[in-house]
Amino acid sequence: MDTPQYKIVREQLGGSVALTSIYFRYGGNIYIFSYQKDGTARHTLIDTGDRRHRDSILSILAENKIDPKAIETMIITHSHPDHYGLAHILARQSGAKILVHANFKGAIEDERNILERNLLGLRSPKELKECKIEFLSPDKGGCVVKIFGMDFIRLLAPFSFGGVAKLDVLAVPQSPDSHTRDQIVAIYSVRDYAQPDSAAPKGYRPDNDLLFSGDLWLMRGPLFDRKMKGFSFYLRRGLFRIRGLLKGRGWHGVTVLEQDVAVKEALKGHFSVIRVKPGHGQEFLGSRILPFGLPADSDLLKTLGYAGIAAAQQQDAGLKTKMSDLLEQAYAAFIREVQILQKQGYSIAEISDFLVRIYKEQFGGSRQVAIDRKQRRERMKATFARLQNDKTVPQDLHQLAETTEAKLEKVV
Question: In which domain, by residue range, is 157 found?
């Protein structure tokens, strides 16, 4: 049986706004907002997928009742071809405006560095020169949206599609290890994240918010073709690294998932709960209950300033006690985050469902990531076992622990 090349998820977001998520097996996802404007159906896209889907994209859209001629805006999260690859094809159909970070211009002008050219094999998207493209500059004094202490700059006024929520397009803070220099994220919410102290709208539920994270925050990571289609990538990477060794530059070990650590940690640490729409892979639930309340051992070691357990054991005789103290802090943080969710209006049953979903999604990844996720799952179960016997916490937390633990026993 052939493996499906994509999956479609459609949902109503409120008002007359609908979202179609196209999760591709290969290449970046496409997210399509659909709404009425002047009595006509219109669409705004976040990312446009990989060029390899050029022969099928129009039929995919037609099957899902999305008229490419009605696309009015395309927002590109960053200048990698698996995210902008179909933009020029869709722009020809619609004449739509393409919105990109100002630094995207360097990619169009073929100013990529040696790492991008040799390791990733990125070519210049020169075909976009023919399109109606707008470069959004974070230097024009846009509003600052603080996410866990980091400054994300609002690139333009939030989009209103006629629903109750708005789409906020933000420039990602620059850092030496950036995935690209032109990254954009977007948040769809009824809240204004630029005014954190303002009262939340009546009936606000954080899990209705959507974060379009591009390649910054992935659960599974890019889905490379396990057949020969992915061979050229690994060959280029291997040759690039060998040349680096021969020229005395060392073995370049930076990977896509290791970059933008500070930004990714900010996203992970900011939201009590949010639905994340990543650049690759399916939607997952983001929550700071993971880094604060359910840390893996590697997280504890990083907090203590160590890269790995071997170095820590050699240098720190009191390591076991320090890690135990951090786990006590994590237990308190878990309780605190659950109580915050309660204050936000969630019932114990709803919080239990969140935790079960988070547990299920903590699975797979590279070797170390898989180890970390397994530890977080084990730590969640250990936390529930402790909560059931903890007479210092409210009874509803005992109920949460008992209910959720029973559900987890059924999870494969």
Answer: 6-237
pTM of the predicted model as reported, rounded to 2 decimal places: 0.89
- Of 141, 136, 147, 137, give the one whose Cα is nearest residue 211: 147
Same domain, 41 and 111: yes
Work out the pLDDT band at 119, boundaries 50, 70, 90.
Answer: very low
Count of the separate structural domains present in the chain = 2
pLDDT tens, position by position, 309-366: 766 666 777 888 999 999 999 999 999 999 999 999 999 999 999 999 999 999 888 8
Instruction: Give the dihedral sign, CA 136/141/146/151.
Output: positive
Residues 216-228, mean pLDDT to the nearest whole number: 61
Answer yes or no: do 219 and 364 share one domain.
no
Does 41 map to a domain? yes
Q: Which of 391, 389, 388, 365 is nearest to 376 (CA)?
A: 365
Q: How many Å separate Cα 199 from the centre of its chain?
A: 26
Task: In whole angstroms, give the CA distance from residue 49 to residue 220.
Answer: 17
Q: How big is the CA angle at 378 (ends 362 and 293), to the nearest 5 degrees?
A: 75
Query: In whole angstroms, what is the distance from residue 19 CA to residue 357 CA?
Result: 21
> Which residues, including other chains, have CB under 8 Å from residue 261's CB and lie 6 or more apart?
177
Helix (H, G, I), strand (E, B) or coil at 265: helix
If one counts every other C-beta atom within 10 angstroms of the C-beta of residue 197, the result is 4
Q: Report the C-alpha gap between 384 and 352 in whole angstroms.
A: 11
